[in-house]
Structures are given as structure tokens and as C-alpha cells.
Amino acid sequence: MAKKKEKVAVVGKGGKRIRLARTTINGNQAYQLSDAIALVQKNATAKFDETVDIAINLGVDPKHSDQMVRGMVSLPKGTGKTVRVAVFAKGDKIEEAKKAGADIAGADDLVEMIKAGKIEFDRCIATPDMMAVVGSVAKILGPRGLMPNPKLGTVTSNVAEAVKTAKGGQVEFRVEKAGIIHAGVGKVSFAAQDLYENIKSLVGAVMKARPNGVKGTYLKSATLTTTMGASVTLDIADLSAAA
């Protein structure tokens, strides 16, 4: 009788990389931020410059409007990413936006591009007088997190400053349904101190955005990881102190 062939699990390079990384990480330990940065950088072995991401679990319930956590923060060392910016404007403001580095600037023509599915930008800015026009594509931009918002500084008459800020390392953070904020804080190739400064700024902004209605522990837990790497649990007390 022929023997049955045993099934052999095929593990991809990504799976092997993560499995190897986990052997250097103590899953039961919460690491200080500086040590966690060193670990994720050491374990980042992909053939591209991986993004370093932080996930922060907050003690909020986003289902309640008074517990929504959202904001913008300018990372002092930048993001390492090229941010494409679109600006809704008219007249002289279009030229002002383009001179500041906007990738796209316009009015009705920009609306038609969006309706056609050509959303070739990562950040959207609008002058106040253009919000009625922007409203016609709100159902498209909103679910993608691209709708201009005065609270986030993306509805402004100073389009040049807004464009430069968006291009220079500004990051939007927003709590998800599970009460978690995910954000990229730089690249593996960054100096460890630069990543530290970026994370410090982000966490500080998240702490300042704490809703008044939140009771109990606000920062519950956090992890640091890279695009292809294993996650490292952060020491919340140390993280809070760093911010």
C-alpha cells in the first residue's frame, strides 16, 4: 500500500522573515521606545525601505461622537514619503497652490477628474469659498479620508502654507472603529533619533487630542512595527513620558 504523502507547508520569504524576527523579540516584554526602535530597524530586512508604523490602542469608543480622536501633526523629521496634494481653488489661488508645490489645483475640472475615478493625490486642500464645489464629491472623498476639514487645517485661504505643510511631513491621525490609531512615523533608513522625535511628536498630539468625555486609561497599549516586520510592544509609561 502506497504511503500518503505528507503535506508540507510552504512559508514565503515574508513569513520566514517575520518568524526569524520574532526570535529576537520577547513577546511578554514591553520595550522602552528607544529599544523598540532599535529592534524594528534591526529586523527590517526587506529589499526596500520599509515604513515604520505605530499602532496606539486608546480607551475610547469611536461610536460616540464625543470620543472621536482625530487631528494633524507635523513630524519634525518628515515621513520619508512623497505626498501628492490636490487643491480646490480658483483664480490667483490656483497659481499660488501650484507655486507652493501642489500636484493638482483647480475647481470644476478637479471635480470631473474625481468623478471619473482619477484620484491621484494623498491630501486634499480647499479654500473656504470652494466647499460648495467640494461638496459635490464628498461621498467619494469622505470614505477615503480625503475630505477637506477646517479643524484639520485643510480648509484655508492660505493654500501655500497648507501645501508646504502637507508636503513637509504632516500626518493625519484618526481613531478607527476598534479604538486604534495607525500612523506611519518614518522609514527604516531614518536615524533612530529621528524616528524617536517623530513618534514623540505623534504621541504628544494624540494625548493633546484626548476627548473630555473619556474616563479612565486613555493610552491603553501600543506597538511598533515595519511594513514587513514583526510588532514590538511598547512600554506605555515610557511612551507617555517621551511625549
Question: Could you explain the architecture of this structure?
Answer:
This protein has 243 residues and is an alpha/beta fold. It folds into two domains: 29-79 and 170-242, 2-Layer Sandwich (Ribulose 1,5 Bisphosphate Carboxylase/Oxygenase); 85-167, Rossmann fold (3-Layer(aba) Sandwich). It has nine helices and nine strands. The strands form three sheets. It has a four-stranded antiparallel β-sheet with strand order 7-1-8-9, covered by helices on one side. Strands 4-3-5 form a three-stranded parallel β-sheet, with helices on both faces. It has a two-stranded antiparallel sheet with strand order 2-6. The termini are far apart.
Within the largest sheet, what's the order of strands?
7-1-8-9
Count of domains: 2
Between the first and last Cα atoms, what is the distance in angstroms?
68 Å
**Unreliable runs:** 1-11
| SSE sequence, one letter per element | HHEEEHEHEHHHEEHEEH
- Tell me how many strands there are: 9
DSSP helical segment count: 9
- As for the CATH topology of the largest domain, it is Ribulose 1,5 Bisphosphate Carboxylase/Oxygenase
Structural class comes to alpha/beta
Helix fraction, binned, reads 25-40%
Q: Can you tell me the CATH class of the largest domain?
A: Alpha Beta
Shape: globular
Gyration radius, in Å: 21 Å
CATH architecture designation of the largest domain: 2-Layer Sandwich
| Mean of residue pLDDT values | 89
Largest sheet: 4 strands, antiparallel
Content of β-strand: 15-25%
